[in-house]
Structure formats: structure tokens, C-alpha cells
Amino acid sequence: MTRPEIVLFGDSITEQSFTLGGWGAALADTYSRKADVKVRGYGGYNTRWALFLLHQIFPLDSRKPPAAATIFFGANDAALLGRTSERQHVPLEEYKENLRKIVLHLKECSPTMLIVLITPPPVDEEGRDKFARSLYGEHARRLTERTNEAAGVYAKECLELAEEMGLRSINLWSKFQETEGWQKKLLRDGLHLTPEGNAAVHQEVVRVFKEAWLSAEEMPYDFPHHSVIDGKNPEKAFEQQCIKHI
Amino acid sequence: MTRPEIVLFGDSITEQSFTLGGWGAALADTYSRKADVKVRGYGGYNTRWALFLLHQIFPLDSRKPPAAATIFFGANDAALLGRTSERQHVPLEEYKENLRKIVLHLKECSPTMLIVLITPPPVDEEGRDKFARSLYGEHARRLTERTNEAAGVYAKECLELAEEMGLRSINLWSKFQETEGWQKKLLRDGLHLTPEGNAAVHQEVVRVFKEAWLSAEEMPYDFPHHSVIDGKNPEKAFEQQCIKHI
């Protein structure tokens, strides 16, 4: 049996999801022996740059397209004009249209793909400021390159698109802010995730996948569990899955 | 650019390699944006049962076979006859021949695949005994189902085969025992790995891959790093890799 594939497509928060305690690695563990988790995270990328990658990551002629994908962009798109990261800024309307293009491409790739949109997380401006000072010292700009307000506006747009297109979504911007002390508890530099923040994302993704049809508990193991293999007649357990012995 | 794939083929120590602090997840992070790590670990499996999976996991007609694979069996093969886990026992000579069959199949799959054999880790009999008691209480057998001596004999056989076939190998059985207090420091139940044990395996695999030709530092990113993307002319960075915009 070949396992279905789950692709995590996004920016640095996706790219770093296999660091210690990361949500991507935890997801791979949740779907252990049931689905493969493939990371396609690109630090610093916005939705405009992500469009260049679509045909490579999700080729239309794939014989086995992914069963599910998370689309997790916006943290860079929401970087403010006139500040340090303006190169990454993408106007709000374009952000939404880019997300739409990504979704349409994935649907063309496979009409049955489970697509989950994830909003950018909230921004802890104090944390960003501290991070900038750790990099640039006194030369750090007085105004942070991202604000929580802007991230919230992009998050809202992401949710609206999910609604319009009938997709499932995770409102991380709101979800995180429900936690007392989210600024330091869930974020390590005002933007990227602590292990607790990673655990929260993992939990949300598992929940949404389960609410759709991708529940790990209900999925079969790829091969027999060792406990059902008869030590004297091992072939029996494998024959049921039509597996040829070498 | 499609990323090369690294397959981790083995028993529970491979299956559990994506738990928190696991060596598989750490490897995926080391090769972030450079190679994909695919886990094919089967708890409780010995080499005899692993043979049933070969054609499924490593199909001979694959258009893109893995670039590298770790083969990490033996902990179950070395379970002793006449004790609790004897169902999993595989005689020493057969263990070696099964490993040989696995390697030959992988080489048929791709003659250039980097194949690394990993020996079983040492066994902390006291830890196994404690674990058995935690499961079966007073009914636990007095004699543990695995011994360090037996694991060492299987490890030696694994290394001999690697030598015979000109393959790289990791002598985990010896390596672990170089660490003072390895019994509790590197193993959590006398057999499976603690986070420190996982870190040690990760370090060894990275070292051996690097000594071969699979050095993460020397491999290119799959797509441009965001810092080389011109905000006003993003296409330039992507054109160099012949990437079509959607």
C-alpha cells in the first residue's frame, strides 16, 4: 500500500516545522505508518514568490498527487511598506488573489485534495523589536517591520477566501491570542514559534484534518502490525495485502 | 528542482524517529530544502518480515529511486529463543542473508543509491527487565528477552556484511557503549532511544552521509533563498532555475 501524502506549503514557519518540537515533525509522527508528510516551506517567501514554485511542487501531471495540503502564507506578505522588510510586502488584494491562484492550481492538480488555509500568526511587536535590536543593535529601526494589526487584516482576508472557496481554515491569528501571555509563550521572536506554539499549530492541523476525512486513527497501517504476524507462517499476514516475498 | 529522497528503513527505532527529539526528524531538518526524508520504520519487524515489504517500499520500476537509505534492523532478530519475544527471533546466518537480500534489492533499484547499514544498539538488560515488570508485574519472566551479548553478535554480523559488500556502516552497538552511563542516558527502556540517544544516531548518520557524498552543506537549496529575490523583479531569481510563473 502506498501512503497518501500531506504537503506543508508555506514560509519559514513551515520550513522550520521540523526543528525540535516542530509542528511538521509532530504531524509526521501522528500519521506514522499512515501518511507521509512532505515539507515545502520557504523562509521569507510571500504568496507572490510562492506562485513561481507551484508547477514544480504540485506538477499537474503527477500520477499520485498529495491527499492533503496546508497553505500557510501571509506573515511576509503583511510586512509593512516603508519599513525594513518592505521587499517582502504584498498588497492585501494581491495576497488574496495569489492565495486563490494557489488553491485553484492545487484543485487542478487533484480535485479531491484536502486543502487547509492557515492564517499568519499574530505578531508580538515588542518581540520583533527585541529581535531587530539583537541583530542591528542601535541601528534597528524604531518601528517594527510587522504589526499585529496588519497580520490580523491579512488573516481576515485569508479566512474570507477560505469561506468563498468552501475550504477549511485555521484562524491562527485569533487562536493564539486566546492564550494568556501568547506573546512570549507561543512566539520566540515575536513571529516564529516556540515549542508550545508549534504544539498549538500541530493540534489545530490534526483537528481540522480529522474533521475533514483525514483522521489518523481511522486510517489503516501501511503494512501488518507486527503483533498479527505469525512467527511460523509470516506469509499469511502479508498475503492478505497481496505482498510478494522477495 | 526535485529533491533527492532519503529513506529510513528499519524497525521501531526507525518508526519512532519522528517522535519529539527523534533522529529522523532531526535528519529532515538537517536536509531542510535539500532532501526529503521518508520514514519506513516497522515496530517489531525483523529482517525476515522486512523482505515482504521490499518491492512495495523500493519498487524496481521507480522513475526516481531514493538517493540514500539507512537499513537499521537486528534488535528484533536478536531476540532470544525460548524467551518472551522468540517469535521475532531470526537465526544469525539468516539475519545476514536477509540483510544481503535487502541490499541487493536496493542496488537493483538504483546502483548509485547510498546504502548505510546500522547495527542494533546495545541492550541494557536491567532496563528491559524493569520495562517488562512495568508491563507484566510479577508475571514478567526472570530472563530478559534480549541480551547485550546477543545484540553484539548480530551487530558484528551486520558490520561484516557491510565490509563484504563495500558499504558504509554505523556500529551503534559499540558507539553507544563509549558513553559513560549509556544504559540510562541513551536508552529509555533498555532498547529504545532517549532524546540523547536519538541525537547520537542523528550525528552518526549525518557524519556517514557527509563522508560519502551526501553533505547537506554542499547541496543546493531547491529554490532561491529569499534574500536573492529582487522585490521589484522577482522573476529574475526564478528564471535562472527555469521556473515558470503561474
Automatic annotation (TrEMBL), chains A, B:
Residue ranges the record marks as coiled coil: none
Keyword Lipid metabolism: yes
Gene3D superfamilies with a match to the protein in the record: SGNH hydrolase (3.40.50.1110)
Entry-linked InterPro entries: GDSL (IPR001087), Iah1-like (IPR045136), SGNH_hydro_sf (IPR036514)
GO biological process, alphabetically ordered: lipid catabolic process
Family per record: Belongs to the 'GDSL' lipolytic enzyme family.
Protein name in the entry: Uncharacterized protein
CDD domains assigned: Isoamyl_acetate_hydrolase_like (cd01838)
Signal peptide range in chain numbering: none
Superkingdom of this protein's organism: Eukaryota
Pfam family, one: Lipase_GDSL
Keyword vocabulary terms for this entry: Hydrolase, Lipid degradation, Lipid metabolism
Organism in which the protein naturally occurs: Rubus argutus (Southern blackberry)
Keyword presence, Hydrolase: yes
One Gene Ontology term of the molecular function aspect: hydrolase activity, acting on ester bonds
